[in-house]
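User: Predict the structure for this protein chain, please.
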Amino acid sequence: MTRIFKIEPYHRELISKTSLLNFLSFLDTNEVELPVLLMDSERLKKKASAVGKNIRNSKVFYAVKANAADGVIELLDGMSLNFEIASEGELEPLEKVGVSADRIITSNPVKTFKFLKKAAEYGIKYYAYDSKDEVDKIAAMVPGAKVYVRLSVPNEGSEWPLSKKFGVEIDDGISLISYAAQKGLDPVGITFHVGSQCTNIYNWDNALYKAKVLWDLAAQKGIRMRVLNIGGGYPVKYTKNVVDIEEIEKNIDGFIKDLFPPDIDVFIEPGRGVVGDAGVFACQVIGKSKRGDENWLHIDVGVFNGLMESIGGIKYSYILEDTGGSKKSWTIAGPSCDGFDVIDRNVMLHEPEIGSMVLILSCGAYTNSYASEFNGFSIPKTLLI
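Assistant: Here is the predicted structure, written as structure tokens:
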């Protein structure tokens, strides 16, 4: 069955013709159960290859939390990428494909005892921290580990800020670096995170200036650090264009060259920037309704089983089958019985028919990895094509 979709001009700015044709061809020629998350393997390879290309002395550690599907991990492992994890559950798919410990770091500043035990047994050497308690835990369970302190930096311009929960200011940072050394750990560097889906290139400037101050204070105390971990934050296109990886990295590289020693190692932890716009959710319209003045469109994937980021402000773009319906403003909702399951409001779309297919763009990151089986709805499968 060949389906005809309504392609709007703005869609062409968000997804390449090659990727779109690849998805549509797959859906036309294969019987797949909807909803399903489709990942374009060629797009995935292209994005993974782009990260770190314009930053000297860089090593790329894919943030497994963004998408831990077996096929994604296998593809990135085949490209010899490294990995960043936060739990034993994220270590499991790496262990399955035989990723060695020297290709894994963990930047979760507050780790569980179960994970620390597993990480130590596996041989992981690099750990983030931002408190004395965490230093004590690491020193007890992974003696001699290489550690990097998490610095709090501005997250303005990021659609998913991360600055409230983790990170310390400079004064506390230097105290923690000294404390880690006293406890027999190896304080190798500094890490920060400008916020997920960061569309403000100046966030990296501010973060690097702040990291430089802390770096120099450590040097004054006789602690020579070697690692600058710039975290993630690279944005992808959802409803509009964003600054691209090359521009971000050339800016970062210039600041690092001016501020830091030439022989440091730069760690990068992309998640969304690698997988985000390589994925498309294919789902179905399961209902339409009128609630007062609102037109409601119900689909079979929602907040709980794949689109959790919609409640944090991420806006998606939709491609519907062309049924000839007129354009209306819709409130888009998922399939559960919970009133919280609302994905978006005031979305202008042509009216579809019940059973029509919907493609939701840029769904490769933080969709299935957030998903649950709340209300009995299964987590959609992830397929690489």
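The chain has a mean pLDDT of 94.
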